[in-house]
Amino acid sequence: MTIAVEARALIKTYRDHDEDVVALNDVDLEVAEGEFVAVMGPSGSGKSTLLHLLGALDAPTSGEVLIAGRSLGSLSRSELAALRRDEIGFVFQLFNLIPSLTVSENISLPAIAAGERTSVYRERLDEMLDLTGLAGKADRYPSQISGGEQQRVAVARALIRRPAVALADEPTGNLDTRTGDALLELFSACNKFGQTIVLVTHDPKVASAADRVLFMRDGSFVEETTLRQTGAEIAELVRLEDPGVRRSG
To answer: HEC profile for the chain?
Structure first.
């Protein structure tokens, strides 16, 4: 089994009003190549902090992150920038598209930034447009497509260079149910093609598509399920993970 993402004894603390706040507390994680992992937990549990450390957007206070076998802590700033560009695809809750660029141009940005010529990435661009159902809107601007379509552009942009891992932070959070379902189908399709995905979500229905669901509280993993359970079953697990429910039960 090849490990795409690994975290070893991750600790992240912040200074807040002369106090140290622990955002992550001794977190270990292994995600196999081609695995789809969802991370759930209440607000402030450390989910987004973990994702930012895995994506090299922030550095841990202590511990180690490895992406495709490379330790982030051993890399220079330029090497980290290259790794983020080449090995990591990040999908944010806010789409972060460039308004003056077309759908195709937004999707192509990572390939262009890497210095690839159009002839090199064109096939991958066409593949992403087909997979996301945006082939007929390739020349439109973000303002000319729906919010769900904009998020699909963001996913295609994250995946066009076939990164070792795709990290998604609440990607359906700003979408209605129908467009959220369509985006979830897109993630599932990418995963079936072998894409490794780590996704943070509050939505049990989204988490139910993953191979594994990890639950966080107070900066640590507290529960895991490895079955593809229904959204209702995962929602019940989330309910039972609430400290008030466990005390009353």
So the answer is: CCEEEEEEEEEEEEEECCEEEEEEEEEEEEEECCCEEEEECCCCCCHHHHHHHHCCCCCCCEEEEEECCEEHHHCCHHHHHHHHHHHEEEECCCCCCCCCCCHHHHHHHHHHHCCCCHHHHHHHHHHHHHHHCCHHHCCCCHHHCCHHHHHHHHHHHHHCCCCCEEEEECCCCCCCHHHHHHHHHHHHHHHHCCCCEEEECCCHHHHCCCCEEEEEECCEEEEEECCCCCHHHHHHHHHHCCHHHHHHC
Domain 3-248, architecture per CATH: 3-Layer(aba) Sandwich (3.40)
In this predicted structure, the answer to whether residue 245 has a pLDDT above a threshold of 50 is: no
The pLDDT tens digits for 20-79 are 889 999 999 999 999 999 999 888 899 999 999 999 999 999 999 999 899 999 999 999
